[in-house]
Amino acid sequence: MSINDNNKRVQVESELEELIPGFIKNRHKDIEKIERMLLDEDFEAIKLVGHTMKGNGTGYGFKEISELGESIEKAAREKQIKEIRRLIGELNLYLENVVIEYI
Q1: What CATH number did the domain enclosing 97 receive?
Q2: Residue 3 near residue 53, CB atoms below 8 Å
Q3: Is residue 2 situated within a structural domain?
């Protein structure tokens, strides 16, 4: 998955507006956690974080986060350190550039 102009804009239900800042902040925390877990090569824990992102992203309206979470989970299962680093970089880029529209 790569970030482009079409998927930087996300429409989110207005009733979720209060929850979104915390959701985004927690994804930043996920990046920090995964970076620490990589130092210990704790692939099981990384897989769990990716799995959680996969499950939560779409529910909040962030399909891309779910897709990245799924990719992180897969890369952790296969113990692909470079791919995990690439994916968390992509997640960070996405989080820094996403434009949220409440509908």
Answers
A1: 1.20.120.160
A2: no
A3: no
Please choose, from the candidates 5, 21, 2, the residue with its C-alpha nearest in 3D space to the C-alpha of residue 91: 2
Helix and strand numbers (H, E) in the chain are: 4, 2
Mean pLDDT of all residues belonging to the chain: 92
Q: Give CA separation, 8 vs 23, 67, 101, in Å.
A: 16, 14, 11
Give the residue among 68, 35, 39 at the shortest CA–CA distance from 51: 68
Distance between CA atoms of 67 and 64, rounded to whole angstroms?
5
Give how many domains the chain has, as a whole number.
1
Instruction: Report if pTM > 0.85.
Output: yes
Helices assigned H by DSSP within 1-103: 20-39, 43-57, 63-77, 81-97
